[in-house]
Amino acid sequence: MDNSLPKYFLESIYQELLPGLQIESINPRDPIKVSYIPQPWRLLGKGNYAAVVYHPDYPENVVKVYAPGRPGYEEEVEVYRRLRSHPAFSKCLYAKDGFLVLKRLYGTTLYDCMHLGLPIPKQVIRDVDEALEYAKTCGLHPHDVHGRNVMMYEGRGLVVDISDFLQQEPCAKWNNLKRAYYWLYLPLLRPLRLRVPYSALDFIRKFYRLVSSFKHLCHQLARKLNYFKYLKL
């Protein structure tokens, strides 16, 4: 952790941001609801468990605040401790009282690239692959890596959200995204420079989630059936 953060910056977090920030997680599968952000703080993004904000006087840092009642804070701190420093990941500069101060990553998510029709070079995919392999050498398990958690900046790939990297259950999201990139995006979508509406992207995201849940249910049923067959034997 970096203890060299400006005193005023930390004072603004404790005296302005935290007392006034109003966020809540209604459904853990959907982004949190942000009702109010005290001035001059600004919202940068939000996930299912936390909001990310920044102060205009300190744009190089962001503050990630977890919604009340949502887990994951301690796990994310531990993930950053293990990752140490890597160009494809952010860096934790301060962690205390349910929030983290992180080095800000600039870029455009692959999700937004599809909407804007921005070309995604192969180097972005290679960078993320290398970063995830590095995370494995740190004893982590890359999880929930998808189009909204990967960014492109000056043709290079960045991994934005690593909060689930302690989960050990298999996650195929990144491999599925790569398969779609090489089989669908490169030969068809990229040459046409198509701009995909957010409504279509959201439909694909929800359909993928539905199919994944169905496959998971099928695997669970198959295991139970095999268990019952074993008992009968």
UniProtKB/TrEMBL annotation:
Out of the domains of life, which is the source? Bacteria
**Entry keywords, A to Z:** Kinase, Serine/threonine-protein kinase, Transferase
Q: Which InterPro entries match?
A: Kinase-like_dom_sf, Meiotic_Drive_Suppr_Kinase
Which SUPFAM superfamilies does the record cross-reference, listed alphabetically? Protein kinase-like (PK-like)
Molecular function GO labels: protein serine/threonine kinase activity
Return the protein name.
Serine/threonine protein kinase
Q: Which organism is it from?
A: Nostoc paludosum FACHB-159
